[in-house]
Amino acid sequence: MNERIFNSLYRIRRVEEEIARIYPTDKIKSPVHLSIGQEWIAVGVCEALQPDDTVFGSYRSHAYYLAKGGDLKKMFAELYGKATGCAKGKGGSMHLVDVAHGVMGASAVVGTTIPNAVGYAYAMKLQKSKNLVVSFFGDGATEEGVFHESLNFAALKELPVIFVCENNFYAIHTHISRRQKTPNVCDKAKSHGIEAEQIADGDTQRLYERVNAAADLMRTGRSGPQFFECLTYRWKEHVGPNEDFDLGYRSRQEASPWLERDALPRIECLLAPEVCRRVKTEVEEEISAAIRFAEESPYPAPEDLYKDVIGD
Amino acid sequence: MERTLSYIDAIREATDQEMARDGSVVIFGLDVDDPKAIQGTTRGLLDKYGPERVFGTPLSEDAMTGVAIGMALAGLRPIHVHIRMDFMLLAMNQLVNIAAKSRYMYGGQVHVPMVVRCMIGKSWGQGAQHSQGLQSLFMHIPGLKVVAPTNPYDAKGCLIQAIRDGDPVIYVEHRILHFQKGLVPESEYVVPAGKARVLAQGKDITLVGISYMVLECLSARDYLSSADIEAEVIDPVWLSPLDIDTVVKSARKTGRLCVVDNGWTACGVGAEIVSQVIERVQQDRHVAVQRLGYAPVTCPPTPVLEDLYYPNARTIASTAYDLVKGGKNAWLPAERKDLAEFEFRGPF
Fold first, then answer.
1. Both B157 and B28 in a single domain?
2. Domain with A200 in it: what CATH number?
3. Is A47 within a domain?
4. A264 within domain boundaries
5. Residue-level pLDDT at B301
6. Is residue B109 located within the same domain as residue B252?
7. Are residues B89 and B207 in the same domain?
8. Domain of A295?
9. Which of B183, B207, B242 is the last residue of a domain?
10. Are residues B147 and B123 both part of a single domain?
11. Is-catalytic flag, B178?
C-alpha cells in the first residue's frame, strides 16, 4: 500500500511540476489550477475506491483525475488542446473527464458538481449497485447554497456518497475567516445529519484508512453519506504555475509548516531506496511519453467545432 | 379506436407508459407525490412505481436539478417537474453550465438525458412570478432542447420523445393548455424533435403562435375570416431545434409574418423566428413582419391591467389586419362569445 501511495503522490507531483515548467512556453492553452501540496487528499481517498466507483470534482482537477486512474496521455493532450485529449480539446484543464476510469468531470463553477455526485449516488442506490461516489470540493463550496441543498438530500435518502472538502483556507485570495462567521466545515455537515471527520495532519495513510472504513460501511448498506474535511495548503497561486507570496494576502511564514509536513517525503522515508528509485524512473518515463504524445498529436479539425452539441 | 383525453391525462399516460417500459425513468419535484399530484399529471404513479422512482423533493431546485443530471450521467432518465417555470431561475447554473454543456465539454464521453417539465401560469392573479414564459432563455443555450406542445396529442408524443431523447429537454406546459381535450392514441408514439405543424392553411398572412398563444392565433384566424383575410397558423411545437423551413415556406407564400410569443418580445422567440426568416428570404421576397408578446412590463395581477398585458385573439387579428391592409389600428373586431378568451378560474 505504501508503495502505491508513494507512486500516486509522486506521479501527480511530477506531472504538475512538468505542467508548471511547460506553461510559460504557451504550449498549454488552458488555465491550470495546480494541486501541488494538496495531492495527498486525492491519493488517500482514491486508494480506497474501486475502479467502478465514481468521482466528481472541481476545476482543481488534476490530482483526483490521476489518483482515480485517469489517462495521463489524454490529460496532457487535453491541456495542449489536442484532438486526442480526454475531452477532444473541448474541456481543458478545468473539465478533465475519463468515464472509463470513473472520473465523471469537473466544473469551473464552485460547488456545481456536488449535486451531480449526489444524483449519481441516487442512481447507484436505485440500481442496487455496490459502487459509491466521491464528491471533491474546496472550502469555498461550503458557502454555496447548493452545498447545503445537496447534503440535505444525500442525508435524507441515505445515499452512498463521500463528501471530501479540501480546505486550503483560501477562496482565490480571501481567507475563510473573512468569508464565514463559523468556519467549522464539519459542523455544517453534522447539521445535516451526516457523520463528519476532520483530518488535520495531512496524513495520507490515515485518510486512506478512514475513507476505506467509511466505504466499507457504505458498500454493505450500513451507512449513508460520510463527510471528510481535510486541512491542507495550496503551495502555488490560485491559477497558474507560480508562487504568489509577493501578493501579500498570505505569508511564506504561514506556509512553512505545511511545506514541512509535505506528504511525499513522509511516505518516501518508509520505503526502501531502490523501490523509490524504480517508482521515480517509471513515472518519469511515463510523463515524458505523455508529453511527447500531446506534442505530436493533431489539433481538432474545423468540423469538430459542431460535433457533440446534441446527439445525432 | 379514437379516444379523447385532456392534456393533463395525456401527460400522465405518457409518463406511465414510459415508466412501465423503462425502469430507468424516474420522476420527482416539489409535490409530485402529494394529493394534488401536479394537477393530476402524476396521479397514480407513486402507487404503481414506488417512492424510489416517484418522489417529492426538498425545496432545493438548484440541487435537485444537479441531482437529475447526476442520475442521467449514471444511466437513469429523470423527469424533474416545476409547477411554475419561474422556479427554474433557481436552477439556471445546473441547466446552463452542466446539463447543456456536458456532452460537448466532455468530448462526447457523456450525455444528459433528462426532462424538465415546467408550467406557465396566466390570469387569476398569477402576477409577477407565476406567469413568466422564459422559453427564449433556454433556446439561447446550445445543448438544450425546448418543446412547448399545445394540444393533448403533442403533449403525449413530445413527452415520450423528450424522455427517450439523449439530451436535456425543457418541456414547457401552459396551465390553460392543461384543460385542452383532444384525440390521443392509446399506444405509445413520439412526436419527433424539430418538426412544426401547419394547423390551418391561409394565403394572406402567417401567424406563428408559441405555447398557449397558438390558441389565440387560431381564434384570431376566425376573426380575420370575417374581414376576408385568410391566415395560416403554424405551431412550431419544438422551439429548439426549430423547424424554420416550415415557417419560411409559409412566409414566402403569404408575404406577411406575425409571431405571437407567450413571453416578452425583446430577444424572444419572435425575434429569433423573424430574424431567421428574413435572413432566408431577403434576397428574393419581401416579407412584412411583426412580433407580439407580453407588454414589456412585469405581469400585473389585477385583471384590468392584465388584459392589456397579454396579446389576445382580437389584438392579434387587429395587428394582422394592419399588416395585410396597411394602416395602424385600422380595425378591431367586436368580441365574439364563441371566441372569448380561454378563461382560467382559480385558485390554480
1. yes
2. 3.40.50.970
3. yes
4. yes
5. 93
6. no
7. no
8. 2-299
9. B183
10. yes
11. no
Instruction: Classify residue A289: in a domain, yes or no.
Output: yes
For B159-202, the pLDDT digits (tens) are 999 999 999 999 999 999 999 999 999 999 999 999 999 999 99
Average pLDDT value for residue range B140-153:
97
A119 inside 8 A of chain B by CB = yes
What is the domain count for chain A?
1
Q: A127 — contact with chain B (CB < 8 Å)? A: yes
Mean pLDDT of B107-116: 97
- pTM to 2 decimals? 0.96
- Residue A104: its chain B contacts at CB < 8 A? 73, 110
CB proximity B22 to A under 8 Å: no
For B102, which residue in chain A has the nearest alpha carbon? A105
Mean pLDDT of B138-162: 98
- Inter-chain residue contact A123 with B75, CB threshold 8 Å: yes
- Helices in chain A by DSSP H: which ranges? 2-22, 39-46, 62-67, 72-79, 114-126, 145-156, 185-191, 204-219, 252-260, 263-268, 273-296
**Domain identity same for B255 and B206:** yes
What ranges make up the beta strands (E) of chain B?
A: 4-6, 25-29, 54-55, 77-82, 115-120, 145-147, 169-174, 181-183, 197-200, 205-209, 231-235, 238-240, 256-264, 288-294
Asked if pLDDT for residue B259 goes beyond 60, the answer is yes
- The percentage of residues in chain B with a pLDDT greater than 70, rounded to a whole number, is 97
Question: Is residue B53 domain-resident?
Answer: yes
Q: Give per-residue pLDDT as tens, B262-279.
A: 999 999 999 999 999 999
Q: Report ipTM for this prediction.
A: 0.96
Put simply, whether A90 touches B (Cβ < 8 Å) is: yes
Whether B82 sits among the annotated catalytic residues: the reply is no
- Determine the Cα–Cα distance for residues B203 and B232; give it in Å rounded to an integer: 7
Predicted confidence (pLDDT) at residue A131 exceeds the cutoff of 70: yes
- Name the residue range of residue B58's domain: 4-183
List the single best residue of B24, B73, B141, B167 to mutate versus A (max A Cβ within 10 A).
B73
Single-letter amino acid, residue A116: N
Summarised one tens digit per residue, pLDDT across range A264-278 is 999 999 999 999 999
The 3-state secondary structure of A154-189, one letter per residue = HHHCCCCEEEEEEECCEECCEEHHHCCCCCCHHHHH
Q: How far is B311 from chain A (nearest CA, A)?
A: 34
In a domain, B21, yes or no: yes
